[in-house]
């Protein structure tokens, strides 16, 4: 789940102490880590994009080549179109779920919102294969439509398929942010509008949605960024004329010296940053504040019998759509043969046997890599949060900004940057650093650091600085105060940060697809992608996908349980 900015800390939580030698060392180490594994690789990509290969001087010729090439112009327009349309379709899915469950007496509202988030725990490229079996021209839905109505709908044809899959997978970003915004609106605003004659869709369009716009824009910008940067889903759907697939194909086919791959990477970064900037610009200068958060005014509205039937029909239809990938993936994982038929011809557990017998290394590697990445993120997140909230170190705030900037760096770009930067760095024994499995861990850690950082920062903001001051007045050393007081009080936030980083790193593919040099070092997401490349391997790939869903699902559930247990233990 994507991280959101926390509320400004209270004065008592922001009490600062002069920096000490150990804190200066910690600042230096964190800064060096971010410079080495985030800033330098990204700057390397940018530098190569603007560098003449022969003379090494600055040039815009590579961008001219990019703009003059019909394939690349088409790929750019396709990526832009797919991203915008995915936002539109994802909004059409999320808006009814959010509105009905927060504004009406709706039985099962919590269940609906929970089921609506489930698509996030499945790798989108795994869902793409499952949705192909259900919605392609020879899939379950079109076979039934052909038999019943003699029609065939191109759900999964070309760019339509990418839009369909991405919308279903990423709409929970809009749903989560929109639900939170709707719950925070003062209901008295709606009551006043109703008393003045505003009802139904007009009330929603003129009052409710504008007040909830900050949450909607936050979710929509995340959907745009995720879709624009996604690599695996278009590749699995055999859609190559998009920017991320073109960058991957140029680097892997032409080589690391090909400047066009770097040019495309720069374009990907620019549009990620541009999306965040536009989303903030859209809300600038407007007031969305209400007198009180949630509550107030009228209670949740009752629906008439006809309205309730229609609302439940819409919700059930949407849930069937968004849960279809999970259903399809599970059926594929136990299917003997599934081709040109609404359902598999038979069922077997052989695919799971094959996965655990032949590919257990993928699962083991994932647990190791994601676990180490989560640990690194918690250590870095805690250190940055402490330096920002508890010291007067100059530049501490910039560490926070730098770490959060990883959100705007696509995994593909980071992977290309690592290859270019570290390929010539040789480890003892003659192995290139870019070929060492540890580089995958570092890439995952950098990619997921913003999630752990926000969790650690929120946890530290809830600890009153007076507790630490009292311990120091009683003679405790600063390091002992951190170890004996701060870290135990942050335990819930640390656990939530670790689990969030772990769960999202477990299904990361874009960066690892560039960095895996040996199948023995490959994580689960890479193995899943390889299996899904051929029809013969899709059964085993689906089984591996179900394993991934279980791992991420359990991690997400554990994160919620930890957050709930720690939620009531705020310090004074």
TrEMBL record:
Sequence ranges assigned to domain ABC transmembrane type-1 in this UniProt record: 76-275, 363-559
Keywords: Cell inner membrane, Cell membrane, Membrane, Transmembrane, Transmembrane helix, Transport
Membrane topology annotation: Multi-pass membrane protein
Transmembrane annotation, as ranges: 24-50, 80-100, 112-135, 163-182, 203-225, 260-283, 309-341, 367-389, 401-419, 425-446, 485-507, 540-563
Presence of keyword Metal-binding: no
Annotated compartments: Cell inner membrane; Cell membrane
InterPro entries xref list: MetI-like (IPR000515), MetI-like_sf (IPR035906)
PANTHER family named among the record's database cross-references: INNER MEMBRANE ABC TRANSPORTER PERMEASE PROTEIN YDCV
Name of the protein described by the UniProt record: Iron ABC transporter permease
Biological source species: Pararoseomonas baculiformis
